[in-house]
Here is the input.
Amino acid sequence: MDKIIIIDYGSQYNMLISRRIREMKVYSLVVPYHSDIQITDDVKGIILSGGPASVYDLLSPELNQKILTYGLPVLGICYGMQLLVQAFKGKVSKGVIREYGKNKIENLIYGQLNQGMSKTSTVWMSHSDQTEIMPEGFHTLATSNNSIAMIENTEKNIYGVQFHPEVTHTDEGRLLLENFVFNICKTTPNWNVEDFISTKIQKIKEEVKDESVILGLSGGVDSTVSAALLSLAIKDKLTAIFVDTGQLRKHEALEVLKGYGIFKDMNIIKVDAKDQFYDALKGITDPEEKRKIIGRVFFEVFENEKSKHQDATFLAQGTIYPDVIESISVSGPSHTIKSHHNVGGLPKQSTFKILEPLRELFKDEVREVGISLGLDRQMVYRHPFPGPGLGIRIIGEVTKQQVAILQEADHIFIDELRKHDLYDQVSQAFVVLLPVKTVGVMGDQRTYEQVACIRSVNSTDFMTADVSRLPYDFLDIVSTRIVNEVKGINRVTYDITSKPPGTIEWE
Ligand code: XMP
Here is the structure.
């Protein structure tokens, strides 16, 4: 399988670069700039990502000079281009004008990289540093009003762009990346889910051998698809454990277990750990502390179950590629926005070996694998539900009562979305319960109850998201039902924040 390697210098867009290339059916992976890069025959090209640093700063991430010795095509994006400029004796300096957001570039001459692009093209910029002196052996393909926007050295097969072709705001970004991936790197688009499935099943067999695996099922698409793959690979050496954390959605435990009915040969067990979770969360209000506690209790439950199931040595998790990229990001742990317990690693004392069959895939690829394995469409296209469950949708302390209130409100919202054929038109919808009480009036009586906020977003990869434009009349129906039917809520609001700057979950 042909591969493009993306070297991560800390850009917020590096995951998008990888996605864009996978969309072209070419496999791509992101590696931190300081890691030892393994160049095998299947690697056809290298992309240097953008990043927040300045190449002339003493402590900025450096270009691993080995990259230039492989004879592979290299494309530098933003900071990546500036590294190339510096490496080939050009000069990067602080520009007088910062270019941020939409800009126009003019293609002065046509080379390999900008083949087929329009004379002037809209691009997305995000830089203040720029090329002051051109690197040796390169020529300029395009400029913006204020900077050199695209350079190439066809002899060395090295290219640079000051803008971000991976962002959809760059109108011809896809064309430019296709020029690089297909014409310059000469890749064959041979990344597909069928090959992924057969290779993965083989790999799981080789890794697990005669040992046993337990897997945490949440009912979400990631753990379900992981279970299906593992079950095909290792049959009865897999035990799937569905943990009732007490923070599931209404009827979830029942529905999930019913959904798994299609796995005729799989050992599935349910563990009731509600009290364990409630006890551990007593009095806790800090979002990160809640996430960490929930993660810890999950592992305690699995450790406890281990001996009961053929002394399982492996714990399988539904970790997917965005979680992996986030956890290896060169921006480092100080940039952790939320602790996802399925990538934070195991507690030190854990004896499990970890198995993550989907760690190379994006969400939509996971869904494709699910469909290809014959899973039920409704299950595969269920909205994502976070591992920590309703606990991170109850702002403030998590108690049984708060969960019960939220479950009812959430159930009404989802029920109405389905009734109005809107469920499949939005990517993720849910209700958040706020620790705020407001005054209302119901049947001439004063009420003083909590506020619920409904949230619905549209997104393909959940890294960025737009607010769903739900009809006002629909929102009215949902709000009326929640206030009338859920004791404890007397006011409903709608969250109109996109991601960024907001995140999808509130905690
Ligand atoms: P945020 O809130 O970071 O969420 O914008 C992005 C997507 O990830 C889901 N999410 C999680 N999924 N474990 C998970 O398995 C977690 O800890 C977790 N936190 C957030 C969230 O629901 C959204 O789909």
The CA atoms of residues 422 and 471 lie 10 Å apart. The first strand starts at residue 3 and ends at 8. The first helix runs from residue 14 to 23.
